[in-house]
Design brief:
Pfam families: Cyt-b5, FA_desaturase. This protein has two domains: 288 residues, no CATH class; 95 residues, Flavocytochrome B2, Chain A, domain 1, CATH 3.10.120.10. It is elongated and about 100 Å long. It is mostly helical. The chain is 55% helix and 5% strand. A hairpin with a 2-residue loop joins strand 4 and strand 5. Helix 3 packs across helix 4, helix 3 packs parallel to helix 9 and helix 8 packs antiparallel against helix 9. The strands form two sheets. The protein has a four-stranded mixed sheet. Strands 1-2 form a two-stranded antiparallel ribbon.
């Protein structure tokens, strides 16, 4: 009985409409592959429909209505709301509400597509099964007051048969007589690809790639994700700077949604294209670069800290120099005994400075040493001369530029 109860519970939590759309649509498309030849005109038309549907999602549902990253004129809003509806992914109101919860509660149980629940769940599972915990609340007052959003939400189920299925089929049928090709390829397969391309934003964009701006959350940047999602794959940037109308900030990065919005701005259809301050973006990048470098730094062996070195008098230094080859450079006593045969200038130069202050010679009197010599010499420190004067140049470059993590804040 317990097993039957579990089955009933699962069946009760299934989102049957979503399940039907996500299974019947590709099934019909597969049937079309075996029954209808794909014509090149239909392929081009299906591709155009796909791009337009995805722009409705990425430029409309996502960057305009979910994040308010720019302002759109009324004609552009209606165009994007119809293009987004053609992707058959729910109304703007439903889509944007869930996406705002995703950003506010990322990677927590209140995140409607929590990446920590696994790749399948974030890709499609959350669409098929009602969550045991409702998505966290978010402010959607602007969506409630937007006439275009509310109009589309009210008439959504009347709109999608027209723009999602009928229009792509009719154009192919009237245009070049390929009614079935329009149905199978420009409608069914185009919708299927649009579904899973969008779902990739929630799934692989949280698993595949790097975190160049912050690594607290699972969002990642990756070219493949961007290629599949019309530029949405630079997701680490997006989660750090969600109100920026761009997802990609480099000229060579693939973000056709950004190019579309910028073009609309140039044509006067969009305005107030929001961008995050470049200075703050650079801080985020630098912080992550320093974090990576600090890990490298921690794997490197460094010289003994100055405070841990013994303080040695001149007399003791001279006496110990008789037993081993000690030289002074900028107040530090160095044991170069094991380096005699490795010294590029030969043993004689080092032996000539034995028991002496070689500061002037080291800093250009004989030869002006580079970074490698400074770093290597610092590893030979064995003491600090009593009354000696430490010079800032005596600090090896590797130490001067050392990354220090502040733990007092």
């Amino acid at each position: 009985m317990a097993n039957m109860a579990d089955v009933c519970n699962i069946l009760g939590r299934l989102r049957w409409f979503n399940l039907a759309i996500l299974t019947i649509t590709p099934a019909v498309g597969l049937y079309g592959i075996y029954t209808t030849r794909l014509r090149w005109e239909t392929l081009l038309w299906a591709t155009a429909c796909y791009v337009l549907s995805m722009l409705g999602i990425t430029a409309g549902y996502h960057r305009l209505w979910s994040h308010r990253s720019y302002n759109a004129s009324r004609p552009l809003q209606y165009l994007l709301c119809l293009l987004g509806a053609s992707a058959v992914q729910g109304s703007i109101y439903w889509w944007a509400r869930g996406h705002r919860s995703h950003h506010r509660y990322t990677d927590t149980p209140l995140d409607p597509y929590n990446a920590k629940r696994g790749l399948f769940y974030t890709h499609v599972g959350w669409m098929l099964i009602k969550p045991s915990v409702k998505p966290g609340p978010s402010d959607i007052s602007d969506l409630k007051n937007n006439e275009v959003v509310q109009w589309q939400h009210r008439w959504y189920f009347a709109i999608i048969p027209i723009v999602g299925y009928a229009l792509p089929t009719i154009v192919a049928g009237l245009g070049w007589g390929d009614w079935w090709g329009g149905w199978y390829y420009a409608s069914m397969w185009r919708i299927t690809f649009a579904h899973h391309s969008t779902f990739c934003i929630n799934s692989i964009a949280h698993y595949l790639g790097e975190s160049p701006f912050d690594d607290k959350k699972t969002a990642r940047d990756h070219f493949l994700s961007a290629l599949l999602t019309m530029g949405e794959g630079y997701h680490n940037f997006h989660h750090q700077f969600p109100m920026d109308y761009r997802n990609a900030i480099r000229w060579y990065q693939f973000d056709p949604t950004k190019w579309f919005i910028a073009t609309c701005g140039a044509l006067g259809l969009a305005s107030n294209l929001r961008v995050f301050p470049e200075n703050e973006i650079s801080k985020g990048e630098l912080a992550m670069q320093l974090k990576k470098l600090k890990k490298v730094q921690e794997e490197i062996r460094w010289p003994i800290q100055v405070d841990d070195l013994p303080i040695v008098s001149w007399e003791k230094f001279k006496k110990e120099s008789e037993e081993r080859v000690l030289v002074i450079v900028s107040g530090f006593i160095h044991d170069v005994s094991e380096f005699l045969d490795e010294h590029p200038g030969g043993r004689g130069l080092l032996l000539g400075q034995r028991g002496k202050d070689a500061t002037a010679a080291f800093f250009g009197g004989v030869y002006e040493h580079g970074n490698a010599a400074h770093n290597l010499l610092s590893m030979m420190r064995v003491g600090v001369l009593l009354g000696g004067v430490e010079h800032v140049k005596a600090i090896a470059p590797g130490e001067r530029l050392r990354i220090v993590e502040r733990l007092d804040q």
